[in-house]
Task: inverse folding
């Protein structure tokens, strides 16, 4: 059976590294799995990343529209074909990012979630990697030479983090991302084990 597992969190949470480790874990266990990220590697996804680096302010509704357009492409060309072929999909960001980030810019989080769920498959499990903003910014400073002007300011990330922690749903698993990578990944694997056991019953 194929599953859709999503890693979410503020910038600097470690979700990208964790999602790749998780992919390796699944494959080592004999599971056919694929790793995807949003924004995608399509021309539109590249445009979104450039805007985040170059623009001081993009209107939030226009920002959301670009993300949704990119996600529609991702669902049609990557996510649904993989799931239908029996491939488990591991994602670095999904529509929860839009709800939390564009929500922090004043848009309605519930409306964003509803609009995306109208066409995008619901994840089986969402790992929300929760990290203190100060720690996340330190990680970003060590790892990157450039700062995404739109998304990597302390006050803004505090709002985004609060939005993530306000999300509710049986498929959401909040993981403490403040310790080092190994203990955080161990927490991810434990939560996955519990999920798989529930599916086996």
Result:
């Amino acid at each position: 059976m194929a599953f859709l597992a999503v890693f979410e969190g503020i910038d600097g949470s470690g979700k990208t590294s964790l999602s790749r480790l998780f992919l390796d874990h699944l494959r080592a266990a004999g599971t056919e799995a694929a790793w995807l990220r949003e924004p995608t590697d399509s021309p539109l996804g590249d445009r979104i990343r450039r805007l985040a680096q170059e623009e001081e302010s993009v209107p939030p509704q226009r920002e959301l529209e670009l993300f949704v357009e990119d996600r529609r492409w991702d669902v049609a060309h990557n996510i649904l074909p993989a799931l239908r072929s029996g491939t488990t999909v591991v994602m670095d960001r999904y529509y929860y990012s839009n709800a939390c980030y564009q929500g922090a810019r004043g848009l309605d989080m519930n409306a964003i979630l509803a609009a995306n769920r109208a066409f995008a498959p619901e994840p089986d499990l969402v790992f929300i990697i929760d990290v203190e903003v100060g720690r996340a910014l330190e990680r970003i400073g060590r790892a990157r030479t450039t700062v995404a002007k739109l998304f990597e300011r302390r006050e803004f990330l505090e709002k985004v983090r609060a939005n993530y922690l306000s999300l509710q749903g049986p498929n959401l698993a909040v993981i403490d991302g403040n310790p080092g990578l190994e203990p955080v990944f161990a927490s991810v694997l434990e939560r996955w084990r519990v999920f798989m056991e529930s599916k086996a019953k």
User: Anything to note?
Assistant: The mean pLDDT is 93. The helical segments are 15-28, 43-54, 60-84, 95-104, 109-117, 133-143, 154-166, 181-200.
